[in-house]
Design goal:
It is built from nine helices and nine strands. By secondary structure, the protein is α/β, with parallel strands linked by helices.
Length: 217
């Protein structure tokens, strides 16, 4: 178990995903997480390619980042494609690099209950748990599987009460908190079905990364 001292810098949430495309549901849970966890800001890590998702129907990275930038306007959300710059594909590698690069930030990983249900499929998932606190957001239709998942059986002794959630910077690791917000049924899958060519509206644009400030082409 890793003991941690007082917060050293900005409290920053990390929400990874394909954002194919980003939508109002992503924004809603992020704004709620910022408030619930007392975050200074939350980064959307727009993945160059999710190893657990098929490449079919995956829009180009610049279009997905552009949709994330549009959804994050006038908020403390920062949309970034920093994983491409870091050259990382797996979350464990990304976290190790981010912790080294930003030693004055304190990070918490945020994911939906659907990801907790398959967390044991993530490469070095126990290493992830040892590097960073985890906040799991309840999702309709996935909560029962998440609670019965092998990863949750391992995490059970490390679960923190929701009323302790704003103290996450003080927690020993591993640590997991389960958060429940008003359900939001919006999904990227439904958006793609209704508008399979959504990404074309972003073609030819150079998008500024909100964290690194580099242009993504």
């Amino acid at each position: 178990m890793i003991r941690r001292g007082p917060i050293a810098g900005r409290a920053t949430g990390l929400l990874g995903g394909s954002f194919n495309p980003a939508h109002g549901g992503h924004r809603a849970i992020s704004v709620q997480a910022i408030e619930a966890l007392a975050l200074d800001e939350l980064w959307w890590l727009v993945s160059p390619g999710n190893p657990l998702k098929p490449k079919k129907d995956m829009a180009p990275l610049p279009a997905r980042l552009a949709s994330a930038r549009a959804q994050s306007l006038r908020s403390r959300i920062r949309a970034t494609a920093i994983e491409r710059q870091l050259g990382t594909r797996y979350t464990a590698d990304t976290l190790r690099r981010l912790i080294r690069r930003y030693p004055k930030r304190q990070f918490i990983w945020i994911m939906g209950a659907d990801n907790l249900a398959q967390f044991v499929r993530w490469r070095r998932w126990r290493d992830i748990a040892g590097m960073i606190p985890i906040a799991v957001i309840a999702r309709p239709g996935y909560n029962a599987n998440a609670m019965a998942a092998p990863a949750m059986a391992w995490f059970r002794r490390f679960v923190r009460r929701p009323d302790q959630r704003k103290n996450w910077t003080q927690w020993s690791l591993p640590a997991l908190v389960y958060l429940r917000f008003p359900p939001d049924t919006r999904s990227a899958t439904a958006i793609r079905r209704a508008d399979p060519h959504w990404h074309k509206r972003y073609e030819g644009r150079a998008i500024r990364d909100a964290v690194t400030r580099s242009l993504i082409l």
